[in-house]
Design brief:
It is built from 5 helices and 53 strands. By secondary structure, it is mostly beta strands.
């Protein structure tokens, strides 16, 4: 690469997500996708730009060396970039461009049917389209932005020396001593306070200390940073009836994380985000989230629809990570926030360890005034995590009446030890998990300040009352209007290419998995085509891939390395090819049957249904050759009936760290045991048997 045109334009991108087969998680945590520019290349020596590289590879450890002082993620990103971009020499795929700054020339590879003599070409120059900064004494007041389209703004900081050293939710570590001081407060010498106050992503539309400002029926599309920042001190603002799509980073950023103890009169409070459509948000910075709320009071987030996104859908709260070292999370004045009646689906397609609704930190002084998460419908979560995620320090939260279906690992998780207000961690942070519809099936309990009761086990969404499903998402007055407007803004076209292609070798074959495109071209993907570097091909329908999450490519030569690319096809056309997988080599090696899975249990519900929980064999047998496990078989006794469990949560379970579950239905009243075994190339392995359970 040293002979390339402008090597200092290159960026190395390190993607998180699940480690699976040939594809590793290389981010600063599986929820991130940091990127750092190159400073120079001389021969085989690559010098990375500073301070991005230090901020991404030298995050300071606690004095005892036990973990990073930021308490969030690892010290360093991974060993190899997921991909390299921004070089003239890499051009070739239709739709790609390169800006050669020294020669003032833009190179572009046209898509099929494009004629640059007549094409509309937009080159964004502005990083900010609207900016307003009031003060508490003189706030911006009483402005309405209605029926407008905000488009074609850029964001150049990630291509500069700071790069994009992400820590979570597009917040970044920045500055020459960011890795050793920024937001680390009392945890390190000379730490900067308050804890957790990392750098917020830039907003292309940005307001602070703005009161009674409304964004009504606006469109936020083709934006290179976060679309809309309503920062510190915003009060009584409304975002309603808007569309957010093809946004590079976060959708709406409400409040910040730099003033957790601001005076109540100055706090971000009484704001509403309702009846908006978020789709393909986080298009470039894939740790981006459609709605991100820092420290805030009396926020209402309701009746939004969020779908086809690379990571989490809604994030609220901050600063709870110190419970990892038996300390209280950041004290704050947040209270009274509501997240209710939102519809969220097709989420976490690329990155993992997030949720449909992710919350953390202190949310109030009691369950009565703490955060309420109610009536939300969340389904089809691709990567591992929790559909409703009460993460570190999550306290005083009520989760009730939600629908959580087709998750990857948990519907809800998890409990954390309580160190607030002098507590010693004996009990958990107070939570109430009640009357939800889920597949997790946990028994009712009340222990250590966490109450789980009255939840309903379901095997399909058809078992949820129609009124609950119908009430979630856009209200009737907005649904048809926003969908029609979206179709006008985003005409149907070929989908974006799939991503994160992973392969595992077998004897004369390989199994291949990948992340579907977050941008489906505003038309459902119908099928996928897999092409091996040797010329072998295979196809799978989108419906079948949703069930299996992998396909088998046969006719491969043993002991010969092979890579795979994927194309996605919808009614409007076929995508460009994905980046190739890393190479694998099939072989006729001896493959052993697997030992029994670990952590097997069964949880009975009503209506002849049970939830089977299990871990992979690797949980008790680390290092065994268990790749690829493509399914689990459950044998129901005494009938001997067999049920095959497949899906993305089965494939990603191989790390041995997590438990997942599947619901089995159609059981008659009686007493049952269940034997579960992992299946790999050698066949069905040894089985683990549950305790007997009575089914009604």
């Amino acid at each position: 690469m040293s002979a390339w045109k402008n090597p200092s334009d290159l960026e190395f991108v390190y993607t998180g997500g699940n480690s699976i087969w040939s594809e590793r998680s290389e981010g600063l945590g599986s929820w991130t996708e940091p990127r750092c520019p190159i400073q120079s290349i001389h021969g085989t020596t690559i010098t990375m730009a500073q301070p991005c590289w230090d901020n991404s590879t030298k995050r300071v450890m606690l004095p005892n060396g036990a973990r990073t002082a930021n308490l969030v993620g690892p010290m360093s990103l991974g060993k190899r970039p997921e991909y390299v971009e921004n070089a003239y020499e890499l051009l070739g795929t239709p739709g790609q461009f390169y800006f050669d700054r020294p020669s003032h020339t833009i190179y572009y590879v046209p898509r099929s049917g494009e004629d640059l003599k007549t094409a509309d070409v937009e080159l964004p120059v502005l990083e900010t389209l609207v900016e307003g900064a009031g003060t508490m004494a003189a706030p911006i007041d009483d402005i309405t932005f209605s029926g407008l389209q905000f488009s074609y703004a850029t964001w150049l900081a990630p291509s500069g020396p700071d790069g994009f050293s992400e820590i979570q939710a597009n917040y970044q570590v920045t500055g020459p001593d960011g890795y050793s001081r920024q937001a680390l407060c009392h945890l390190v010498p000379r730490g900067m306070c308050p804890y957790g106050a990392w750098t917020q992503a830039h907003g292309n539309i940005s307001l602070s200390f703005a009161h009674h400002v409304q964004f009504l029926d606006d469109d936020f599309i083709h934006l290179g940073a976060a679309a809309l920042t309503l920062g510190d001190g915003v009060q009584n603002d409304t975002v309603q009836g808007c569309i957010f799509t093809d946004v590079s980073g976060n959708g709406v950023q409400l409040g910040g994380v730099d003033t957790p103890l601001a005076a109540i009169a100055e706090y971000t409070s009484d704001n509403r985000i309702e009846n908006n459509l978020f789709r393909n948000v986080g298009a470039e910075f894939r740790g981006g989230i459609p709605i991100v709320v820092g420290y805030a009071r009396n926020t209402v987030i309701e009746h939004n629809q969020i779908d086809h996104i690379p990571y989490a859908a809604i994030s609220i709260g901050w600063g709870g990570w110190p419970d990892k070292i038996k300390q209280a999370g950041q004290t704050n004045n947040s209270t009274g926030n509501f997240i209710r009646d939102n519809l969220i689906h097709d989420l976490m397609i690329d990155l993992s360890d997030g949720g449909g609704i992710y919350t953390q930190g202190l949310t109030g002084k009691s369950l009565a005034d703490g955060e309420k998460i109610a009536g939300n419908v969340i389904y089809d979560q691709f990567s591992s995590g929790h559909e409703i995620y009460t993460d570190n320090g999550s306290s005083m939260i009520t989760v009730s009446g939600n629908v959580m279906f087709n998750t990857n690992h948990d519907n809800w998780g998890s409990r954390h030890h309580d160190y607030y207000d002098g507590e010693d961690g004996t009990n958990f942070d107070p939570l109430a998990i009640e009357t939800n519809y889920w597949q997790q099936g946990d028994a009712d309990s009340s222990k250590g300040n966490v109450t789980v009761r009255g939840n309903h086990l379901i095997a399909s969404l058809d078992e949820v009352p129609h009124s609950v499903l119908a009430n979630a998402g856009l209200t009737p007055a907005y649904k048809s209007v926003l969908e029609r407007r979206f179709d006008t803004l985003v005409p149907a076209r070929a989908p974006r290419a799939p991503a994160r292609v992973a392969a595992a070798p077998g004897n004369g074959f390989a199994v291949v998995t990948f992340s579907p495109p977050t941008d489906n071209g505003n038309s459902p993907v119908l099928s996928y085509a897999i092409v091996a570097s040797t010329g072998a091909t295979a196809m799978i329908s989108a419906e079948e891939f949703a069930k299996l999450s992998y396909l088998r490519v046969s006719g491969l030569a043993n002991n010969q390395q092979v890579t795979f690319t994927i194309n996605a096809t919808n009614a409007a056309g076929t995508s460009t090819s994905s980046l190739p997988s890393f190479p694998v080599a099939p072989s006729d090696r001896q493959v052993q049957l697997l030992p029994a899975p670990s952590g097997v249990s069964v949880h009975a519900g009503g209506n002849g249904e049970v939830s089977i929980h299990f871990q992979s064999p690797g949980a008790q047998h680390p290092g065994i050759d268990e790749s690829p496990i493509t399914s689990y078989v459950v044998t129901i006794e005494p009938s001997g009936r067999k049920v095959v469990l497949t899906g993305r949560n089965v494939i990603t379970l191989a790390d041995g760290k997590h438990t997942t579950f599947k619901v089995i239905s159609g059981l008659k009243p009686g007493t049952y045991t269940f034997r579960i075994a992992a299946v790999n190339e050698a066949g069905e392995g040894s089985a683990a048997t549950t305790e007997p359970v009575s089914v009604q």
